[in-house]
Amino acid sequence: xxxxxxxxxxALPLALAAALLLxxxxxxxxxxxxxxxxxxxxxxxxxxxxxxxxxxxxxxxQARDLLRHGQLRDAAGILxxxxxxxxVWYGDQTPAVVEREARKVVxxxxxxxxxxxxxxxxxxGRDCANYSGGGASTTAEYTAWIDAVARGIxxxxxxxxxxxxxxxxxxxxxxxxxxxxxxxxxxxxxxNYAVDALEPLAGTKVYLDxxxxxxxxxxxxxxxxxxxxxxxxxxxxxxxxxxxxxxANTWYGTLISSCLAYTEAGGDTADCPNQWWPRADAQSWLDxxxxxxxxxxxxxxxxxxxxxxxxxxxxxxxYTDPQDWCNPPxxxxxxxxxxxxxxxxxxxxxxxxIPGESDGLCLRGTDGPEDPERGTVDPAAGAWFPxxxxxxxxxxxxxxx
Length: 401
Fold this sequence. Notes:
By secondary structure, the protein is an alpha/beta fold. The chain contains ten helices and nine strands. Helix 5 links the parallel strand 4 and strand 5.
């Protein structure tokens, strides 16, 4: 009489675990490096927190599969990751669709007393037509799309991460421009238009692209920010979809903000210290040359979604093109999203990249089709990548649990 009941007794704990996991509330934005359990994190106004959009369906599929195999801790980790505040990405939708979707998100966020983060990714020639190529066909098409986003957001609160790689990767940087620099000039026009359409909205803060601290020097990116209209934006962001540590990111952001203030006061960008100076020397220079009130300086946000283990260094001499940004192995989730950073220049640590989604097909200079570092064919950019998702959970720093 006991034998038929055995499968039921085995399934019951798993079913209970599944029910518990699926009723875990979306994680609130917690203090720096915290676990996301603090629901009172402030953005300057009482009662606000960062918004958690619907998760990639692949996260739930993976959690259910892990649960079926008795890997309860990993399943809980995937769900905790998926239900932590992260950016809502828009790109390629028609103006009508993006307006409707943005309006729905801000209304839902307002009802939850939370602030959404929008990553807008539709600039013409984005990503130099590489892994995430696409975007609007013309400047006119792009400005109409931005106008639709602005209508969707309206008077609601929102943080806008404007066009990743738009300033760090100009058309002139990848051979897409003509001799007159027509496309690069258009890029600056497009970014400026977006700033002017979005920043004046009652509750919107716009941040411009800087790439990351392993890419452009402070002296290189500051002129691009100025040309992109940063003086009319809240500030800038760094490390979007990358892996550099929060310490490196915040130092880079501090140097950029300080150089912007120095330049605004009449200084030469070339004189500014960059991220490769000895830190003590750079700090001494800032102390001697930048006396701006932090409240009047440009602020920044960082992407801490996948930087718990820092950047990946490929084995020396193994690959002709290591693609260290592309689905590197054994990375981990970083600091949980928060607007309470303790730094007057650092508005927030955010999960801009949706952790668990692939960076694209990584060949690392080989003929492929497999990623030679992983021995698998990586999913297309934006598709759920279970192998990487599990690594992010297991190597999270600070740990998820």
